[in-house]
Every structure is written in C-alpha cells, then in structure tokens.
Amino acid sequence: MGTKWAHGLSLLEALIVIAVLGALLAIGVPRLSTPAARMFANDIKAQIEQARFEAIKRNAPVAVVFEATSQTFVTRLDPSDASVTATCSGDLILQERDTSDYKGVAIDTEASTWSGAVVWLPSGQGRACNGSPSIGGEIVVVDGSTTRRVELTVGGRVNVK
Fold first, then answer.
1. 8 A C-beta contact, residue 61 and residue 90
2. What's the CA gap between 50 and 148, in Å, rounded?
3. For FRET with 151, which of 9, 33, 50, 141 sits at 20 to 30 Å CA-CA?
4. Which helix (DSSP H) or strand (DSSP E) does residue 64 occupy?
5. CA dihedral for 50, 152, 154, 74, sign (positive or negative)
C-alpha cells in the first residue's frame, strides 16, 4: 500500500535547526540590549527637566552642574542664598547622576558645547551660573559604540538625539 514515513527529526535536521537559531540569536541579542549611552542621555534629560520642576515647586533657584573630574551631574540647591551664583555651588544636593553607574559611558567634554551648568529660576527660565541668560548647548554622551547628544535649547527645551 503506502510507504511508512518516520515521524520526528533526524539528527542532521536537528543540528541544522540549532545552527540557524544560534545564528539568529547571535545577530538579534545585541540589538535587544539598550546602549548605555542612550540610557545615560535619557537620564540626564530627565534630571535637567526635574531640576526645572523643582525650581518652580520650591520657588527657589535649582542648578544642574556637571563636575568634569568625577563625570557627575549634580542637582544643587542653596537654601540660605537664592542667588544664581550661590545655587551652582549649593550645599543641598537633590540628585546625582554618575557615568560610572553606566558601563563604559563618558562625557565627551571636547565635543560638548554646554557650559557645564544651568540654573533654573522659580519662573522656569534658565540662566548660566554667571547669571547670563545663555543656556543652550549640547552634552555629548559616548559609550564606545554609541553616541547620543543631549541638547538644551536657549528656550529651555531638552532633547536627546
């Protein structure tokens, strides 16, 4: 009548399937992980935006300062002095973001055009630590394979590119 066919996979078929799956996983898995530069850039954006909200909420200037030696962004407040310059070196630290918390991330200080600090006033307007209204610039975040730019516009908008 008819020929009998064996059910199941032969050893050769199973090895081919495993090889194809291995190749697909080798290509796909690295793409699933989020690059550290992108995560850090998004965290910096959130920190700068949060500092602006804190200034409005507390009705006091709040500064985000980049400390180049430690590669850390620090959100500061000086409760005893509401001046713009005092806020940049304020004693009360509200938040810190350190590049060492993100594998292989660094701030490219040579490519960055940001002044290194912004002070948010209670009105929501930004100032430089010297009182100048010029706050725009870019923070360049790198992790070896990825580069992200955190752009702070003169109007106070923060974007990640």
1. no
2. 20
3. 33
4. strand 62-67
5. positive
pLDDT in tens, 40-63: 999 999 999 999 999 999 999 999
Q: Residue 38 and residue 46: Cα distance in Å, rounded?
A: 12
Cα gap 57→73, rounded to integer Å: 21
- Token pair for residue 4? 């009998």
Burial class (CB in 10 A: 0-12, 13-18, 19+), 105: buried
Which residue has tokens 């850090």?
40
pTM for the complete prediction? 0.79
Query: Rounded to an integer, what distance in angstroms lies between the CA atom of residue 123 and that of residue 151?
Result: 21
Whole-angstrom Cα distance, residue 28 to residue 81? 53
More confident residue, 70 or 7: 70
Q: Which domains does the chain have, with CATH numbers?
A: 36-160 (3.55.40.10)
Q: Which residue intervals of the chain are DSSP H helices? A: 11-32, 36-58, 84-88
| Contact (Cβ atoms closer than 8 angstroms) between residue 102 and residue 115 | no
Q: How far is CA 2 from CA 5, 7, 84, in A?
A: 9, 15, 91
